[in-house]
Write a structure and sequence with these properties.
By secondary structure, this protein is an all-alpha fold. The chain has a single domain, classed as de novo design (two linked rop proteins), CATH 1.20.1440.20. It has seven helices and no strands. It starts with a helix and ends in a 7-residue tail after the last helix.
Length: 186
């Protein structure tokens, strides 16, 4: 009788461990998919912004064709953004794009007729809407990363995460250089 009791306890512990492993394994998969979905949302908004930029540049060029340096900078930043791989590369490319766009919009201040142009105003509104969506997407991505990173560090999930080889994910953080206001000279 004692032998059967020990067998049931051992079997119960094994089942508990197996079901615990399955639970944590599936929760990590769900969290990773949440992060992937949130990252895709960021990429979609970055792509939308990149798609708006040529039209914005073309409109500004009509009024300020001699500002060639900023147009070149925007083209280069856009290319880097479209070719970015991974979080760190994307953050750097996005910061460069934001800086270039900031300089472009500062230049626009010198052209009152451009600021009144309907197509420019429409593009500027679309860009502002895209920037707002991008900001929300970054926030959601970082929240998903935070949940994942916290989960893989807590016990007993940490044991399963270690067995699966999971590591902390990177946050989408603005670089220090991007926090500075662009310097525009006329």
């Amino acid at each position: 009788m004692q032998n059967n009791k020990s067998l049931f306890i051992t079997l119960g512990i094994i089942l508990l461990l197996v079901f615990g492993y399955i639970y944590y394994y599936n929760s990590f998969i769900n969290l990773e998919e949440e992060i992937n979905g949130r990252w895709a949302e960021i990429e979609n908004n970055l792509q939308r912004r990149a798609d708006l930029i040529p039209n914005l540049v073309a409109t500004v060029k009509g009024y300020a064709s001699h500002e060639e340096e900023i147009f070149t900078e925007i083209a280069q930043a856009r290319s880097r953004l479209l070719g970015a791989q991974g979080v760190t590369d994307t953050v750097r490319a996005s910061a460069a794009m934001e800086s270039a766009l900031g300089r472009l919009l500062a230049i626009v201040e010198a052209y009152p007729q451009l600021k009144a142009d309907r197509s420019f105003l429409g593009l500027q509104d679309e860009l502002a809407g895209t920037e707002n969506r991008l900001s929300v997407a970054r926030l959601r991505y970082n929240e998903a990363v935070k949940a994942y990173n916290a989960r893989i560090r807590r016990l007993p999930a940490r044991i399963v995460a270690g067995m699966m080889g999971l590591e902390a994910k990177e946050y989408f953080q603005i670089e220090e250089a991007a926090r500075e206001l662009p310097k525009v000279e006329f």
